[in-house]
Amino acid sequence: MKRVLVWDVPTRLFHWLFAASFVAAWLTSESDRWLSVHTFFGYLMLGLACFRLAWGVAGGHYARFGSFLYSPMAGLAYLRQVLSGGGARYLGHNPAGSQSVYLLLALGLTVCLTGLFTQGGEEQHGALAGVVSIAAGRIIKEGHEVTATLMLLLVFGHLAGVALESWLHKENLPRSMVTGMKDAPKDAPASEPYRLAGAAMLAAVAAFGVWWFFYALHQPIEKRLGFGQDTPHVAFVGAKLPDNALWRDECGSCHLAFHPNLLPIRSWQRIMAEQEKHFGTDLALDETTGKALLDFLVSNAAENSNREAAVKISGSIKPGDTPSRITETPYWVKKHGEITGAEWRSPKVKSKVNCAACHLDAEAGTFEDAAMHIPR
Ligand code: HEC
Ligand code: HEC
Mean pLDDT over residues 146-167, rounded? Predict the structure, then answer.
């Protein structure tokens, strides 16, 4: 017997970074507050999985797919042998382990891709912003959650397999994934360490992290650490909403110019028809101005928008109702139900209509989760 290098440096780095990214993404998946961290690890996992596919062709002896091409049947047969106390020892991946490598890679890629589509659809955000509709995004999100759960189960299976193998062959497999070394028969081939490729990989991951947290999420460090949030913690990515100077001018002089996507067509028609008694004031708009405003409001109303807020607000209104207030729509009421009386009365808020006090992107009309903060 001799000690040989089985796992080259990039393979070991891949293994631990991939595992850590999955755990981190899992832990940050529940709250929108951590969405930017969650997506960071998603992109990292995607990059790592692509790297592993390439390394499976170009990497060290034991990392190459060619060295562990076993069929699922061979994997099952091996599993049966192991469970009955037998099963040969493999230096590289054994037939069952190889199946979990393939499955984890396939699931990892699926989780990342469905995540990208979820974000691009449901939030109209990220690299695939607007590529699919909100409705499609929501369906894809189910797939994202299911595949992530399957992956978690597979990770547990993998851990059980590693524990069983370690016990069966009296060797510490997790440690060899750290050191790369294993005891091997005299004639067993050794892998190159590929230290340079490993260093390049670490540098790429570090550069991506620095770029993401210090550039893409451009925000002063104290804000990022959670002392208040005066800027959105994720820059808005996606198509800008339609704008119009006349509308900003006429409808933005007394209050925020409420973006047309926040109410359905019939509401804007009602508001413009009642412009002479607009919440106690007379807007006194002449006919041409009124018509031009109505045109802009109607053509960009909720029905004609694919924004999350537009779809959810108009979806919440009963077909027979024509609210003249956004703040009376069921979705708005539900979303703001947990804000306390003291928070509403805060001098920085004062009124429900003062959307911009809590939504840093209210002017743009996007109402992103990431741009929301309650002033204290
Ligand atoms: C002369 C001042 C003034 C102008 C100009 C004005 N509004 Fe208003 N608007 C008000 C007042 C006052 C309220 C009630 C605010 C409150 O409840 O605190 C209001 C409320 C609203 C609301 C309901 C907000 C809610 O509670 O969800 C909408 C929608 C609205 N305005 C649309 C418009 C549109 C569209 C225009 C342009 C055609 C416009 N406003 C121009 C004074 C104005
Ligand atoms: C006192 C602060 C405050 C004010 C004022 C306020 N909001 Fe909000 N808004 C919130 C909070 C907090 C949430 C997040 C609720 C949640 O998701 O748990 C929210 C959520 C929303 C959402 C849902 C966003 C999403 O993607 O789920 C929309 C749309 C929205 N607000 C629109 C408005 C509009 C329009 C106004 C003004 C008419 C307004 N808000 C005024 C605090 C405020």
Answer: 96
